[in-house]
Amino acid sequence: MAKTSDISVLLPTVLLKNTLLHLPGVTFNMGVPIDDAFLLLEAFLQESDLLSPQIKKSLELLCSRVNVSGASAGSGKSKKSIKLSKEAKRSIEDLHSIFFASSEKHPVFACIAADKNGEICSNVAVISRLVNVQMLPDQCILGLRGELKGYAQKDLDSLTPLNVETSKYGYAGEVLYELHAGEEIPPTAENLELSKKVINGITENLTLTEKFKEDYASLNNSTFKDLLLKLNPLAELLNIQLSDSTTKNNLLKLKKLLFSLKHHQFSEILKACDIYVAVFPFAFSQEVNYLQAREPVEQLSVTLELINFVSAIFTKYLDVEFVSHSWNRIGKLQNGKQLQSKFIINHFNGLKELLSLTARNSKSAKSSEGGNASKPFRMGDASVKKGSHNSDNNDDNDDDGDLGTIAEFISNIQDYEISNDGRNLLIKDFKRLKKMQNTSSEYQQLRNYFDIVLDLPWTQTSNEAKIEKEIDLMKAKEILDKDHFGMEAAKERIIEHLAVVKLTKKTPDAHKSPIILLNGPPGVGKTSLARSIAHSLNCEFQRISLGGINDFADLKGHRRTYVGANPGLIIQALRRAKSTKIVILLDEVDKIGMAGNKGNPEAALLEILDPEQNTFFTDHYIGFPIDLSKIVFIATSNDKWDISEPLRDRMEIIDLDGYNCKEKVKIAGQFILPRQLERNGLLPSQIQMDDEVFDSIATSYTHEAGIRNFERLISKVCRKKAAELLSRKGTYNSVVLKNDLIKYLGVPFSFGSEEKFSAGNSSIQEEFGIVNGLSYNSDGSGSLLRFEMVGVPGSKRISCTGRLGEVLLESCEIAESLVEHLIHTHLFLDYNEEKLTKRLDSTSVHMHVPEGGVRKDGPSAGLTMTLCYLSLILERPVSSSIAMTGEITLSAKALPIGGLKEKLLGASLSGKITKVIVPRLNRKDLISAYIESLSDRDEANAVLTKLVLEEEQCLGDKKRRYKFSSDVESWVRKEFDVDVKYVDDFMDVIREAWGGEVVVLRKEMKAHL
Q1: pLDDT tens digits along 104-125
Q2: What span, in angstroms and rounded, lies between the C-alpha atoms of 821 and 815?
Q3: Active-site option among 79, 149, 491, 903
């Protein structure tokens, strides 16, 4: 509060519900019926100069809601109208200017509390401002921020509240309050000592609280003392209240505030006292006693009493040592076993009485709220509970107990979100069912149908069902990071979805769940990532394998007319999950069967995965529309191009790249080895593997984009070490060295792989005419592809072998024409022009691409084949440490290609390549890969903006085309151990491959007319 003279303010006063005491320094969210909220805030609806635009908009929405529902409620006519007096309006304006010092204007209240008998318990009020209004279908949430304390100048008991009927909240009218600026606490030694005790006491209470929660969470009921603490009602109640997420966050904030406090900062210490009393679960009378302390020193003294009370609870009242000794002493008596049994029985009977009393109180509370004793059933988190019907209220109940659950479901069918057609169908079928003999086959079919329908999670129209649990984005991110390494794009998309869900809680119908396709090579963690996504979303998880499905009825269900009919896989997943809050994984969607005589299952997915159609998805077995729009669908594939274009267009594609060696090493240390140690029963001290061993396994024993075989080999090493440990042959050594891998895993498959790509290891073929290319494989991985050409005297022609596709053969024809054009129109310094031309025209060329069992196709080998042909004609070898990729045109331009990151990974895994030549226009792909590698997303966005703007400037100016920052290239060198060189045309390729050793000049061509 500002240090001014005491002032008096006239404020509208809110009577809080029983035992709820508002304290300064905190925000309380009050749930208020819409009519009562309108009554409380009516005075501010016409005072636009007292309201910020945001608050004004919320109150206008509230006013429109009351105008619609007030007539039906019947209570709006009987309520007395509220209007702010001029004095109250002036007081609120003064408070805004003096105390809140904010351009945002809010309604200001004084909040008082009533005890259980409805009597005003104190003349102290907390001056609060309304910081937000959240509109829900049946109530308002008013956020009241406590700012100051005021003292009424008249007896509050004499006030006559306005008519609020049976509401728990009321409006006590306008009350005149005194606001004291408060005396400065003199910095005497006594007061400084008191403030020191308060700070240390609150800090000690927080420490005791954290220790209690940790100890209580670690109870395993294995010891008698653990059981006694579990049976202690005080311990259980404290754990429930202190484990609340809001309370935990508030305690953390209080701890941070105390950390920076000094003993002489009395005003800050008093604020900490306010928060301390508000956050800890003190009794109502204790909070009132604190609030009534007018003088600052008195407030510190009351706080110190509360601190001592909390310390006594944790150190004395929760100590079970005395109870344990008493139990043991009783057990040593002659009839000790009987006395101990009597203690347990009495304790159990007391719990039963408490349960009975709670049920009676709950029932009476429900009846007093309007006689609606039946609580609306929430479906969305659970299915209909069988056997819970109430036969007193069901006219359609059959004596047969098997039909009781169905009868109750039909009688309450209006409460469920089922379409009108569906309701009519179910009612009609139920009437048919009651008329049938239970021995008939049709009766059993219909009974099975109703069993399946009742198992589905039908969401009720209850307003409570639309209130989502508070979403914690940071916790979701921690879950995703804990389970998976990298995959930032997929994780970021899930966090975005959670943020949208959180922001659209007020309008959940406007939000559609995402439909995501995770595309990537086998073994990168697509399926496990989907499971982690479900965990982070706090959803049920169901997996549907689509590989090999060739019947559309597997997805859409069979019609009930067929014998043995069943619902589709989507409905079965909903039935198993018992919830509409679910993540469904459609695994291997690219391997679904093709269209045949049983329909096209891929076409059936079009309706399921279309956000505009799956709101009314109709399963043939169920027979009426079901809303699938709130389900998160995640599909996986190895090759997205095997999916039909209409289906692919319906999904948001997230490409998951393969892992390089460094990433595999990190994954092995963080995830794979700990998991395999647990699965093989080994302790961390019994097997030790360093990064060098992991790197050797990744490079010498596997050649995959994922980590499936990589983990399998690590598991094999663990099994071998487990056998060594138990066999006890000699001294056991827990350390696994690189040379030990031969003993455990055998001969590396890459043994001699360096010679595989070497041009100088043939006793027959010359070194020239051999160039390394790069390929993108069908499994999503990249690899090195060697192109070989041999020339013999003969007529000029090129024959090709190695299972080459049509596009690759066309690239070979382009290479032939381009080299022929180059020889005839350009001069090669230090080369005899006539000999080159003669060699070109009289050489029969045979091109082969090894690994002939593998089919190869695509345009990205154009640069490679052109250089290979030119190398043969010039008889100049190309270094085996160079690889290249890129499409070429007849005008010698280098065009960009796809899968560059995977190709670089393949070059890195070969262990031989040090330089990779790629088209200049492919630098954007490396920029994207570099940005994805940055863990800090804010930094990544800033770097991306900088690099994109720089790239636009470079590509727009020929002089600056290659004058860019080297951050991306440095990252490539660090991640893949290769240098990337960019080319725009084939002349650049010659320059990068041979440096200045080959100089090409254009001939002067003379035209003959």
Answers
A1: 788 888 888 776 555 566 678 8
A2: 10
A3: 903
